[in-house]
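Support request, please re-run this one:
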Amino acid sequence: MTLKKRLIMILVIALVGGCLYGAGKLGLSVRPEETEAEAQEALFGHRETLYLWYADDTITDYLNSVAVSYNEYQDRVRVVPVYTQGLEYLETINQASLQTQEVPDLYIISNDSLEKAYLAGLACEVTLPEGVLPMTDILPETAVRAVTYHDKQIGYPFYYETSCLLYNRTYLEDWARAQMEAERDQALAEDAQEQADSGDVEEEIQESQKQEEIPAGDVEERVTQTVPQTIDEILSFADVYDAPEQVEAIFKWDVSDIFYNYFVVGNYMDVGGKNGDNADSIHIYNENAIRALRVYQNLNQFFSIDTKEISYEGVLQDFLDGKIVYTVATSDALSKLEKAREDGQFAYEYGVARVPDVSGELRSASLSVTQCVAVNGYSAKKEMANDFAVYLTQYNTGDLYARTGKLSVHDSGNTYDDPNAAAFLEEYARSVPMPKMIETSNFWVGLEIAFAKVWEGEDANDELKALSEQIMGQVLGEAYTEEYIDVPIPVEEDEENLEEEGGEEE
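Re-run finished. Output below.
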């Protein structure tokens, strides 16, 4: 899902099916003449009803099964998941809270919307039940920061999305093996020459030149060494890689979506402090951010990508087809790749690594979005809703990934059988949570536009300065001017040599 789609959340028209599913599971039948209300009364007696709203249909079956499990686990309440779609998810929740009897008691929402929800009374401060370990003891700090607002916990982290480097492991293994075979052959040739020079007979030389297969462990070690730690290493690899015919690009990613670009400047931008809620902590325009964005701009000469034609879906399909070696992908890629493999549409092995650093001096940091469970401030059953929220996010996440492809924040221990899923969790732990502040909600669109302009050749310094002035003006409510930061553009080594040669001639 692109950031654009995340920022325009798709919402809900009520769908209630968990209860009938539970009836079947418990072996109870519903007579045709029974009303739904009568059937529910027969099944659940006088239990209170909790309505759980969500906007992602891919987790419908999972939520229904958890609701059934919880309904069997205790006898106080029944949980009814309600799938809601629409253009204004939070507004729909607000209207339902004020105008209906079936108030959404809790709901799933992205962490960047928590401030808006809290200020509207739609999310209240939550407290872990007695005996439950604090989130700081069991979750990555990123998850805790995602649901913290002015030192209050206003939700429970559930699952997340961030970006990592996705690479074709088959290609790297083949390349590593070829390199090691060439190195071996070179060593054998040199050894044979030494033997010949020393007077060894031809049979002995031939025996010494017998080739053995490169051990798989040695190949794996070389692949690990080959996975790039910096963008410079990707460029160096491109210079020496003898790519198969079907490979069209060494490195390709969606340069039109800030979610896949943010790692370039993520370590050098502060939008709201560590919890994304402090309007006094906004630092967009700075020397390192300028330098990082200039490195990004220079990549266009190596990886010609059209911002108007590129898309994440297209890039992922190219990866499936074996047309690219490296890309930047989000966690949803894992389930898509495995599904393609099952369907016989993906013939390669792949791996996941942290996003590369911008350079040896400039570090990277990915952006992350955490889906949270919030308890509605308008609910008359907050305590019950809170208990189920804990049950959903902390006690029943073991099969979330296997059933939905979503990566739970709770598996920091970790229970993932897939090492690639574990790699995403490591990246999430060092990622930057999307800020919550309403005043900076359009920052992402502005930064995305700035990246596009820089990619096409506009000055990185000017674009960041203008963006910072725009955002600071919004926060302060008055015009704001940044003091210009003079960051010299580094002169390439070849240009320096030419200048020196020209000076000598004069």
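The two ends are 59 Å apart (CA to CA). The longest helix spans residues 169-197.
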